[in-house]
Amino acid sequence: MYRSHTCGELRASHINTEITLSGWVQKSRDKGFIVWVDLRDRYGITQLVFDEERTPKDMMEKAQKLGREFVIQVTGTVIERASKNMNLQTGDIEILVSKLDILNESLLPPFTIEDKTDGGEDIRMKYRYLDIRRNPVKNNLIFRHKVTQEVRNYLSKEGFIEVETPYLIKSTPEGARDFVVPSRMNEGQFYALPQSPQTFKQLLMVGGMDKYFQIAKCFRDEDLRADRQPEFTQIDCEMAFVEQEDILNAFEGLTRHLLKEVNGVEISEFPRMLYDDAMRLYGNDKPDIRFGMKFGELNDVAQHKDFGVFNDAELVIGFAVPGGNAYTRKEIDQLIDWVKRPQVGALGMIYSRCNDDGTYKSSVDKFYDQDDLAKWAEKTGAKAGDLVCVLSGPTNKVRAQLSALRMELAERLGLRKPDEFAPLWVMDFPLLEWDEETERFHAMHHPFTSPKPGQLELLKTNPAEVKANAYDLVLNGNEIGGGSIRIHDKNTQALMFDYLGFTEEEAKAQFGFLMDAFQYGAPPHGGLAFGLDRLVAILHGKETIRDFIAFPKNNSGRDVMIDAPAPLDDKQLQELSLKLNLKS
Amino acid sequence: MYRSHTCGELRASHINTEITLSGWVQKSRDKGFIVWVDLRDRYGITQLVFDEERTPKDMMEKAQKLGREFVIQVTGTVIERASKNMNLQTGDIEILVSKLDILNESLLPPFTIEDKTDGGEDIRMKYRYLDIRRNPVKNNLIFRHKVTQEVRNYLSKEGFIEVETPYLIKSTPEGARDFVVPSRMNEGQFYALPQSPQTFKQLLMVGGMDKYFQIAKCFRDEDLRADRQPEFTQIDCEMAFVEQEDILNAFEGLTRHLLKEVNGVEISEFPRMLYDDAMRLYGNDKPDIRFGMKFGELNDVAQHKDFGVFNDAELVIGFAVPGGNAYTRKEIDQLIDWVKRPQVGALGMIYSRCNDDGTYKSSVDKFYDQDDLAKWAEKTGAKAGDLVCVLSGPTNKVRAQLSALRMELAERLGLRKPDEFAPLWVMDFPLLEWDEETERFHAMHHPFTSPKPGQLELLKTNPAEVKANAYDLVLNGNEIGGGSIRIHDKNTQALMFDYLGFTEEEAKAQFGFLMDAFQYGAPPHGGLAFGLDRLVAILHGKETIRDFIAFPKNNSGRDVMIDAPAPLDDKQLQELSLKLNLKS
């Protein structure tokens, strides 16, 4: 038996008990006549003590030679600690060691195994197994486990069945971003790794499994970015015989459950907002509604004066910064520089100070009088002491720019509180979006999303106006889930593929099995998928997705990391060439 | 709202309630003046009734045209059923329909959606989404969900953390059977899909995550067989600071929990058996101990007579068939034919009848007298009325043959009862096994398995004798899990690789990252992996693994199945060739 207790467990009530602990040497302090060792395991830290008076000489010497991260086993007696450590749960006691075994030695670790480490990200990624020993990383992984376990508990209790769908699936001709997997069994043939279980879950609905979920890995062969992994985890859900309302209720329930069980937060309101309103009021389809600063559209009151910049703009739009009148001229200039950065891309920013005496002072006083500026304040809800920030330009661009400014200022003002949670449904997304590159409309969500009732006909005449039965779940300004009511009859699905520019052959080759299935009594159905990686990060606070993945993909240290792709040897390449029916 | 209740929910207490149901038309009986429709959903079947008297004419006509597997929604009143159906939970009531909507039509399904279907396996695999509508398949998937949920509940309660390990990992030079995945990001480089999370879980142990589990997909690029899928699911577990005893206790607990929660069975005994004893007594490393029929070795009492077949054999071995003396000569001849089938491969079988009067009658009476045969009976535990079956030959072969016969007879005698559960630990497996093909020793489990204390030295002198700290969990004659205490220091691991014939370079290339990790304070650790697919099948009874997989790989219907590999189109192949750095 390696241990009778863990290193997080012993308290004053254990004093005089003989115990055995195992763990890692966190640190040791050697005063010559006395040696203290902090012993660490997953559960905490316990102080060990060796001293000249009570410890045999050979053990004393052994203790003095213990290096950081040595793995040891000790037996000893729990004794009261002379100077208590209030920061440690085991701080009332220490262990007078009677037996010391070194289970494994350790090289000096390349960075300190402390909450605040001296290691940079690259070295910590290279030695991820050492990074995991640190509390922040370890606790993140445990937190992720807790979230997934609560997801499963809740959905199981609600009658959802977790069904595993395959990872080796049929590669479809248009799946350009699929990872493909050559099959040894069938020369020249390939599996693909799924980008999501979408079509499988729809087949399960056709199969009558009317409440399905799965926590599944998904794969996209795209470039690595800071917060995008080629493999990621999805909480994938689907229901049959449901309307949008049923789905929103089901996953509102899940979200409330998670916030309660994981964060101890009870959500009182779970508002819904139309996509169009989200764009108009926040310039963003995933608004953070923990704070106001809603947009006011100023075309009516700012155009047709002599200010050409506004007159020429498609949209003039602003919002009020609470207390922003306190900003100095220099601070406002810095804000203007901030919106002009290439990442934001505004050409400039107009502002109007709302003075405490009810007057206004704007950067465009020569074009706008006090009455005009009063209307700006009214439209943006600005009060005395606020600052109205105004941008102008093409609608989509200027909304995105002002949204970036809103989020930046909220961050600076401390309005994005990590312990406050404001979920929101954003609904009625457009069915299609224009793709500049291919110069055609693409499905905004995916081609299985159903249009709003009665809007199918609009597809031909005014495709940009067609709204979908699609919804996103937003939490604190982050999209954590998205879904839709699906098309469930073959004819509508065929029509959709047609509108999206698929030939009949292409549609059949890519999705024929689904359309075939629709012929055998497909029920109405819809669903939702949560990005687990992001959900966990958002629930936890502010860390990046990678902090919650045990072995994330990383650009650095590729040659040593076990998660990196590697060249094949000659034999493997030869075998693979055969599989591919290629000649090398 | 598509339904107020499910089709499995309504009882006599609901009579006179107005309800709405949705589901599939299981069948309809049209008597002209009255139409009964069985409406089915995931939860059950409810009878709908339409009749001339109470149903409007147009609805009556609509009802008469409903085809099998049409998806409909009905509103109506729960009424008492004239002739109750005791076989149906909803058999006391029926629905007098006031509103009928056809949600989707259906082609005639290619096989009947009944518990006993008329569809063969190929057609059911091709239309798997229809097969899933059938109770046996649907219930299997729900059963699998229940098992996995109970696994997670139990392990979470016991402090295990589920950690996701990557699916896109580094391909290792000797990973001949890996699926490889070309990486778009890195031309000429490849990921591999993991055959198991083995090395990752060991890194997690080095990382201090001392109780880990994961229900993970594993991949092997091998030929498809009836009960082997190229992707399969594993319950993967690992613990640090544990001895073998701790691991056996932990997973004995899990097994007891599953049998109790899933099967309602309390296990009283959880015996352990040495591998050597299992082979000696049952000829098999996964004995079914729900029944006896243990082997007796007869060399002492059957050799050195005049029977050359036995004299020349390495092993003479037999067991007693309870009541087997009742077999006719013809039946025994059929048994002899059975063991001579190529799948078993025995050259013949000797038998001795144990008569009720205490005498014996054997097929080799001219070589053995009553005293000899009495010793056979004694060694095999045969009683009056039994039949002693004896085989001879090379030890390993003859044990396997006799084991096959034992299992066959137990099956015929009804001793393999599906509702009786007998778990068993088989322990102290050999560390190595001889591979005829490569003419060298291979790790029986994997190269991370630790030898029994003090046996490392034997590796050089007598490798076949070295036992490992390895154990299998056996349930009813099936291996459902296996694991070992791992090597946790770099030197022993290097020694193992050396003994297994790896050069230092090969070991470094393939497992360098693990051996590097071992330098930084690796704790003693060990673990276990359950094959979930098989575990679920065994707990459920007798079905094959494929019956518990939603979308299993199947040899038939490849061209239409979505789980099949497919050829890439020219563009994809071109892109892939670039990735591979190959010229086509």
UniProtKB/TrEMBL annotation, chains A, B:
Domain of life of the native organism: Bacteria
GO CC term (a single one): cytoplasm
Record's catalysed reaction(s): tRNA(Asp) + L-aspartate + ATP = L-aspartyl-tRNA(Asp) + AMP + diphosphate
A GO MF label: aspartate-tRNA ligase activity
NCBIfam families (alphabetical): aspS_bact, PRK00476.1
Function of the molecule: Catalyzes the attachment of L-aspartate to tRNA(Asp) in a two-step reaction: L-aspartate is first activated by ATP to form Asp-AMP and then transferred to the acceptor end of tRNA(Asp).
Native organism: Bizionia myxarmorum
PROSITE patterns cross-referenced by the UniProt entry: AA_TRNA_LIGASE_II (PS50862)
Major location (coarse): cytoplasm
Region (Aspartate): 198-201
The name this protein goes by in its record: Aspartate--tRNA ligase
Alphabetized Pfam families for the sequence: GAD, tRNA-synt_2, tRNA_anti-codon
Family the entry assigns: Belongs to the class-II aminoacyl-tRNA synthetase family. Type 1 subfamily.
BP GO annotations: aspartyl-tRNA aminoacylation
Subunit and partners: Homodimer.
EC assignment: 6.1.1.12
Annotated positions binding ATP: 220-222, 229, 479, 531-534
Subcellular location: Cytoplasm
Residue intervals of the Aminoacyl-transfer RNA synthetases class-II family profile domain: 144-552
